[in-house]
Amino acid sequence: MANAQYTPTDRFEELDRIDLDGVFAVLRAYCDNLLPDMEACLVFLSRILRDTDAAQHPQTREQITRLVRKALNLGPLNPQCLDLAHRLTGDQTIGKRLQRLKDFPLDPDLLDFRSVMSNPGAMRRKRAHLTDALGRMPGHILAASQLLQLDFYQGVTVGEWRSGLAVPTFFQADWDARLFLHHTGLNDIDTALELWASVSRGPVSEVQLNLAAELLVKTGDTIGALALYEQSLAMDPAQTPIRLRMAELQNPTMADPALPSQKNVSICLYSWNKADDLQRTLTSLARTNIGRAKIRVLLNGCTDHSAQVAEASRALFPNNDFAVVALPVNVGAPAARNWLGALPEVRASEFVAYLDDDVELPADWLARFLGVMERHPNTAAVGCKVAFGSDPQKIQYLYRAFTLNLPGMIKLTDPCQIAQPDCGHYDFVRETDTVMGCCHLLRMASLEDGPQFDLRYSPSQVDDTAHDLMLRIRGHEVRYCGTVKCIHHQNTGGGFMRRLTSAQQGQVMGNDMKLYYVLKEHGGRIDELMEEALSGNE
């Protein structure tokens, strides 16, 4: 097995290639990094239940109970959740809900959202079918739930179809719970709080308590939020993000606005034929506190009006050393980063920040990044929470950590979940293994030869991930700073709303294979990092 060939696996496919002990280990790592969504709950449940050793395994009962409770509260009107929960528990109340749902027939294809999430045309057709079903039967609670999901994907708080819905009395509590999930996910605070007053009168789970806690944070009631989080952890102590979030609320990390002027920082951007994006990014950067940082812009063989944009942007930074590097050809992302990092003035800096050419930044991003570097001297790289430019209420990327190391397969946790709402649960600082490269800060003292992004991943994809992972393997720390939220206008990372061409898919798959063969030489160290991560969060 030591010489096993690389095995590509899609999301969660690795669970079918490991034994039950391995599945529970992956689940533990997953919960150390993310709060499970409904898809994760159902996938892990399905994998555990079909294992011939499940009945004898000491962890099965506890983990099944946790996952079923979460799934039911994440999908109160989801037939798959209800059916699975009923078969496992025999709960007559759930059985009655399932039986009543049979009164609302719906084509099974209309329950599958993965096929339409990145296909606007398919999404429109699905919406038309669901709206027609609701028009023929105003009490069609199942069609209404699916329409609500489409509204969420598209950022619609209250769809027009809602006026025609007549909620059956039997399902009113379930519908309120479903609406609560929807409005909290879209940051509709007032409506969500009204719904919480109703939902909280019945039995609640950690899923609802976590959402309600962040609603209270947004109203300024930190004490009330912490009380709800305490209840949540009592129900499920294995929620590492919640413990980190509580620590942040109890002792908020503050940004020191003086740091950008006290430190020697270079800010580097590179761009290829995205003049309008570049202009938006530089305009955003100019509105932030960057102190006396040097700015270097590399034009990667641009043939559009990027040169004019870059030159005109000098006026935005009257107090900063601003320079443009124009290359005659596009050398790709890794080489562009290395070229910038090799500039003598950049090499002489204490820190170098790399920004993509399609981001928007909060005013205090650099002060917060430098604050993390100050508090944690062994930190070599800091990154942030990244949101979609097309819908900033949804997370594109958080962070990733090693979760599996086997012959032929090395896996990282998901960067985030599919269509994950930014409710505030990940607003904290934590150690991890890699962050997104569209906005991150590197410590030059940790880079013996300066930034060295691997050219094997040209022209793009994976080079930033590989750079962070090699820092970790060499003994450095990487940290995620969730108190900084960067808006990224390219739909990469999380995969939601993104359609890849065949060539792009080939590039991603090829670079994943390259990354595996680079990492496999460090298998022992990867095992150490995984063990350190779990033991450190117990």
Give the count of helical stretches. 21
Instruction: Please describe the biggest sheet, giving its number of strands, its sense, and whether it closes into a barrel.
Output: 10 strands, mixed
Distance between the termini: 32 Å
What fraction of residues sit in β-strands?
Answer: 5-15%
CATH superfamily annotation of one domain: Spore Coat Polysaccharide Biosynthesis Protein SpsA, Chain A
Present the secondary structure layout.
Elements: H1 20-33, H2 38-49, H3 60-74, H4 79-89, H5 92-101, H6 120-136, H7 141-153, H8 172-185, H9 189-199, H10 206-219, H11 222-235, H12 240-250, H13 259-262, E1 265-271, H14 275-286, E2 294-300, H15 306-312, E3 322-327, H16 333-342, H17 344-347, E4 351-355, E5 359-360, H18 365-375, E6 379-388, E7 395-397, E8 402-406, E9 409-412, E10 429-432, E11 439-443, H19 463-473, E12 477-488, H20 502-519, H21 523-536
Parallel strand pairs: 1-2, 1-4, 2-3, 6-12
Antiparallel strand pairs: 4-11, 5-12, 6-7, 6-11, 8-9, 10-12
Helix pairs in contact: 2-3, 3-4, 4-5, 6-7, 7-8, 8-9, 8-10, 10-11, 11-12, 14-15
Question: What do you see in this structure?
Answer:
With 538 residues, the protein is of the alpha/beta class. 46% of the residues lie in helices and 13% in strands. Strands 1, 2, 3, 4, 5, 6, 7, 10, 11 and 12 form a ten-stranded mixed sheet that branches. Strands 8-9 form a two-stranded antiparallel sheet. The protein is globular and about 70 Å long.
